[in-house]
Amino acid sequence: MSEKQKDQDLSRRDFMSIATAGSAALGAGLILGQPQTAFAAPAASKSAGHAAIPPGWANAFQPAATAPLYPPRQAPKMGEKIHEFDIELGISIHEIVPGIKIHAFTYNGTYPGPEIRVPEGDWVLVNFTNRTSEFHTIHWHGIILANEMDGVPNGTQWGVGPNQTFKYLFRAQPAGTHFYHCHNMTNLHVQAGMFGSLIIEPKEDLVQRVFPYKREYTLLLSEVDTVMVEKQMEEMLRMMTTMEKMNESPKLMKEMNGRMMGWFMNKKAFLDAVKAGYIPPYVAANTGRNAIPNFNFFLINGKAYPMTEELFIRSGENIRVRLIGAGAMPHYMHLHGHDFWHVCQDGSPLQSPVRLNTIPIFPGTTSDIIIQGTNPGMWHFHDHSDLASTNNGLFPGGMMTMVMYEDAAEHGVKVPEIVQVNS
Question: Which residue from 7, 128, 136, 184 puts its CA 20 to 30 A from 149's CA?
Answer without folding.
Answer: 7
